[in-house]
Write a structure and sequence with these properties.
Structural class: mainly alpha
Strand order of the largest sheet: 1-3-2
Strand content: under 5%
Number of helices: 25
Shape: globular
Helix content: 55-70%
Largest sheet: 3 strands, mixed
Number of strands: 3
Radius of gyration: 24 Å
């Protein structure tokens, strides 16, 4: 946690004139906060789950006319029942909270509430109310979020004077406004208005968090009779229309999303028991087979994974996720040609799916079919944002074909996107040495050296 404090505490002269965060400052703080989250917590690295959550978030944001930041949504692999909005449009959901949501509308209700905190800039306003609160204070709060317990309380107390910490707790008015904004965003998107109330009741019924391990700023879901009554009154006054096509799609995909969360975030043996029991109750169901396929794949039990994924595919032959997961299992088993066949089937369902294209390219690389791999990887490099691993594998494939200038160019791009400037500079310079006499390639290298890459 010392690292976090050093990153976020400005020089002493600045602190003497502590002020509210500007949007630019909050964006910087949000990025540093995300970097620290990645150091101290495990974020779910799953394309399907992250795409679903972020697509849902962006859909809810369609009715938001003024967005202070670009929004990003993340899943923390932890069974805590909470979600919180961090600085700069970074919004986090714990896997445990997603696991207790009965439907997509409940998840959308909580998400819309968190978006409401961000769009209303409640954290920045709490700072503005007391000029003693500066970036050092924020550093203490964020550090406390990671340390937990007594250590957190000591750090937070040490970073604040005169008990200012309490003023950063969202007020009843903040919660009321976030509820109102969240209700507005969720209903404008076409979700059921009573879903947030149902979600909060779920949270309040569970042992949803050890409050000694979380600073007040992150306790974003207090419940109470007045608050629940206000939410009920808003819901009763609203007459929802028919669901939009987008809402129907999110609802249809929610069971798959929850299956992925359970299979990847629960203890693998606990997840296995859950899906086996579900299979006993519903032998013809698809989701338990998919869940078990993911669990066994992650445990390197590839034959069992293949059996369950084949069973799932027989029941849902047009499922892109099942096809992709089965292809991954074939890759891991060394059945590369079978993996290529499956990935090509998946691409007939969605021809531009980045994850499928990337895995197909890796399969060709495994077969030493580097030309085919390069063709796919170059296509992926035109996508925005570009996954940095695309550049790494372009470097590998070009290198194997002895096209060394292009290999170094793409290794440079990879290290540039990874934030490793020295290594990026080495590869770019090697690319320039090897590209002498090729003006077009020299221009491409020069452009790459001066371009700020988007990272996934």
């Amino acid at each position: 946690m010392v690292t976090l404090v050093l990153l976020l505490v400005p020089p002493a002269p600045f602190l003497s004139n502590a002020r509210a965060l500007s949007i630019d400052e909050e964006l910087i703080l949000g990025k540093k906060f995300l970097a620290e989250i990645r150091k101290h917590h495990v974020l779910l690295d799953d394309d399907y789950a992250n795409e679903y959550l972020n697509s849902l978030g962006q859909y809810l944001l369609q009715s938001v006319k003024t967005r202070p930041f670009p929004f990003h949504f993340h899943i923390i692999k932890d069974n805590t029942l909470n979600a919180f909005s961090a600085p700069g449009g970074q919004i986090f959901f714990y896997a445990g909270l997603i696991g207790i949501m009965d439907n997509c509308d409940m998840l959308a209700g909580v998400m819309a509430h968190e978006i409401g905190h961000s769009t209303a800039r409640h954290l920045s306003k709490r700072i503005e109310q007391n000029k003693k609160i500066g970036l050092a204070t924020i550093a203490g709060i964020l550090a406390g979020a990671f340390l937990g317990g007594v250590a957190a309380n000591a750090l937070i107390t040490g970073s604040m004077a005169a008990g200012i910490q309490a003023q950063l707790h969202y007020s009843r008015e903040d919660e009321r406004q976030a509820d109102q904004l969240g209700f507005k965003y969720a209903t404008a998107a076409g979700f059921i208005p009573s879903a947030l109330t149902a979600a909060l009741k779920k949270i309040s019924q569970g042992n949803w968090m050890d409050t000694s391990k979380m600073p007040p700023y992150l306790l974003t879901h207090p419940t109470g009779p007045e608050r629940m009554a206000n939410l009920d009154n808003m819901a009763q006054r609203f007459k929802p229309g028919p669901p939009t096509e987008q809402v129907r799609r999110f609802r249809a995909r929610f069971s798959v999303f929850k299956t992925v969360i359970r299979a990847t975030c629960l203890d693998s043996y606990e997840a296995e028991r859950f899906f086996q029991e579900a299979l006993k109750r519903h032998p013809a169901a698809v989701m338990p087979h998919l869940g078990l396929g993911i669990v066994y794949m992650n445990r390197s039990e590839y034959s069992a994974a293949e059996d369950h994924l084949q069973a799932a595919l027989r029941r849902a032959p047009r499922s892109l996720l099942i096809l992709k997961t089965l292809g991954r299992v074939y890759q891991l088993k060394g059945k590369t040609r079978d993996a290529i066949t499956i990935f090509k089937k998946a691409l007939r369902l969605k021809h531009d799916d980045p994850d499928t294209l990337f895995r197909l390219a890796l399969s060709y690389e495994d077969l030493e079919a580097y030309g085919e791999a390069i063709g796919i990887l170059r296509r992926l490099a035109s996508f925005s944002p570009t996954k940095k691993e695309v550049y790494y594998h372009l470097g590998i494939s070009y290198g194997r074909l002895n096209r060394l200038a292009l290999a170094h160019l793409n290794f440079g791009r990879y290290f540039q996107a990874s934030g490793e400037r020295r290594k990026a500079g080495f590869h770019f310079n090697k690319a320039r040495e090897l590209a002498q006499g090729d003006p077009a390639l020299m221009r491409e290298i020069t452009k790459a050296m001066g371009k700020k890459r988007q990272e996934k």
